[in-house]
Amino acid sequence: MPALVAVVAGGGVTAAWRLGFFNADGRFDDLDACELMPDAAALTPLISNGAREQGDSQPRTLFGFGSGPTRSECKWSSVPAGVDRPFRTLRVFVETTHANSDGSGPEHAADSLRVWHDNRARRGSEMTSVEVGENGYGVTDKATYDVVLAHVEVFDVHVKFRVSNAVLDVSARTHDQPGAREQTQVEGLAKAVAARLPSGD
C-alpha cells in the first residue's frame, strides 16, 4: 500500500510540474517559434515548395527591451509567391509569459488566452474547441481588399492554445475559402508544434 501511495503521489508531482505549479515562471524559458515549426518535409502537404521568410525569430519583448512576455514569430511561404497548395503562408507565433508580483507565468498565459477568447466571442467570431495543449481554440479570419479592379479575399485559419506559461498561435493563410479539410490540417500542424515543445526533462 505505501508503494502505491508513493506511485500515485509521484504521478501527481510529475503532472503538477509539467503544468508549471512548482515553478512560478512555468515550464518554459523564452521560446523560439522557428524551433517549434516542423521541418520542410512535414510542411510539404500544406505549402508549395515552402521557404522560411527572412526575419529574426529570436524571442524579444514587445518593444525589444524591459521585462514582460517575450514574443517570437516564424513564417514559411510558398515559392514562387502566390501559390496556394492549400496554403500560401504558414505561421507560428508564441508568447512566453513569466511570473511577477501579479501572478505566475501560467496564470498570465491563461489570462491572455481567456481575454483573447472573450474578445473574439463578443465580436461574434465562430470558435471551436481544439484538443491541443491545456486549452485550444480554432477560428478563421477573413479580410477583403479592393485592389484596382480586383476584389481579393484572404483567409487565415488559426489554432490558438496554451501550454503552461506559453500561448501559441498556429495559422495558415489562403486566398481560397477554407473548409473542414483545411481546418483539420491546421489543427494537425498545431499538434505537431505542440509536440516540439521542450519537455524540460
**String of helices and strands:** HHHEEEEHEEEEH
Main sheet properties: 8 strands, antiparallel
The whole-angstrom Rg is: 19 Å
- Strand-residue proportion: 25-35%
Query: What's the shape?
Result: globular
Count of helical segments? Answer: 5
Which residues sit in consecutive blocks of at least 5 with pLDDT less than 50? Answer: 5-9
Defining key terms:
201 residues; alpha+beta; 5 helices
List the helices and strands and how they pair.
Layout: H1 2-18, H2 33-36, H3 40-43, E1 51-52, E2 60-61, E3 70-77, E4 89-96, H4 105-122, E5 128-129, E6 135-147, E7 150-163, E8 166-174, H5 180-195
Antiparallel strand pairs: 1-3, 2-3, 3-4, 4-8, 5-6, 6-7, 7-8
Q: What features would you describe in this structure?
A:
With 201 residues, the chain is α+β, with helices and mostly antiparallel strands. It is 29% helix and 29% strand. Strands 1, 2, 3, 4, 5, 6, 7 and 8 form an eight-stranded antiparallel sheet that branches. A hairpin with a 5-residue loop joins strand 5 and strand 6. The longest helix has 18 residues. The two termini are 28 Å apart. About 2% of the residues have low confidence.
